[in-house]
Design brief:
The structure is a single chain. The protein has about 300 residues and is of the alpha+beta class. Helices cover about 35% and strands about 20% of the residues. The radius of gyration is 22 Å and the shape is globular. It starts with 16 loop residues before the first helix and ends in a 15-residue tail after the last helix.
């Protein structure tokens, strides 16, 4: 690259690196006008293969797949006609000050001194806390006032009923994110992650389809996964001018980042999905190898005993 190009390395940010990179560019654009920024995201490029037997550290060996994406961002108004999306807002949540959140995803040595990436049982709880705090901050920025007022009134009514001991069984009110969002771009951290977000936000199978199909086709591509999900929507010709796309990502630390994009023109490029988009969505996402090789999960020690 030229000597006058500023380069920033955000190694170690994990699966949430994409939106952290976009946030960095957003702040740089406040100081530099008419600039172009290239954001490159990839999976872990370090040698993180774990050769031990600790179950909490083995998972990382088979969790990720190969993938990478690149995006061009600009604040040059002369390039407006070539743009695909406009960034409306971005919110970052980091719970590194909490011991449970900080330690649930951690690179460390096991009892035998083998280096690996530890995924603890506190991970779902840490992710939920970060997710809730992130939604609390971004909701007022992306949802219409009428939805916020409706939620506030229902929450107040429920609180009054609980205080009067007349509404102990009343359901907790939820915010309808579809009032301000047209598409949901969810990090493909796994089936449980997608299902959890879908349940909490009351999303339909149509809303979750891009994330599910991306996980089925490309697996968890870490920091690049959001753009694979977004490209699925584009290949399916879902993205129309004026639509609003909510991106949600998670990462070690523990971090939850989200942002809202506005589609500035109709998009229908098949991109990375070009060779297979016609066969999606698939009818079933069940692992076809489980029936044939599922026996490997059997804990019978004799199964793995080497014959004498």
């Amino acid at each position: 690259m030229r000597e006058d190009i500023k380069a920033y390395n955000l190694t170690g940010m994990g699966c949430s690196a994409s939106l952290i990179s976009v946030d960095l560019v957003q702040h740089l654009f406040k100081s530099y006008k008419n600039m172009i920024a290239l954001v490159v995201t990839s999976e872990s490029l370090s040698q993180n293969w774990y050769s031990g037997s600790d179950r909490s550290m083995i998972l990382a060996n088979c969790l990720f797949r190969s993938g990478g994406c690149a995006m061009l961002l600009t604040n040059n108004t002369e390039l407006k006609s070539k743009c695909m999306f406009k960034l409306k807002c971005l919110v970052r949540t980091h719970h590194g000050s909490k011991d449970e959140s900080y330690g649930c995803c951690f690179q460390k040595e096991d009892d035998q001194g083998r280096m690996g990436f530890y995924l603890g049982k506190d991970l779902p709880k840490a992710a939920t806390r970060a997710f809730v705090d992130n939604l609390k901050e971004i909701s007022p920025k992306i949802l219409p006032l009428r939805e916020l007022v409706r939620f506030g009134i229902l929450s107040l009514v429920r609180k009054l009923r609980l205080n009067s001991k007349k509404g102990s069984g009343s359901a907790r009110p939820t915010i309808n994110f579809k009032t301000g969002v047209d598409h949901f771009c969810i990090h493909t951290g796994g089936k449980a992650v997608i299902d959890g977000i879908g349940t909490n936000l009351e999303l339909s199978e149509y809303d979750l389809e891009p994330a599910r199909m991306t996980l089925h086709r490309f697996g968890n591509t870490s920091a690049g996964s959001l753009w694979y999900v977004l490209s699925y929507m584009e290949a399916k010709k879902r993205l129309k001018k004026g639509d609003r796309v909510l991106m949600i990502s998670f990462g070690g630390g523990f971090k939850c980042n989200s942002c809202l994009w506005e589609v500035v023109r109709d998009l229908e490029d098949p991109n990375v999905w070009e060779d297979c988009i016609e066969s999606y969505p698939v009818k079933s996402t069940v692992n076809p190898f489980m029936e044939k090789y599922g026996w490997i999960q059997n804990e019978d020690l004799s199964t793995f005993k080497i014959p004498e």
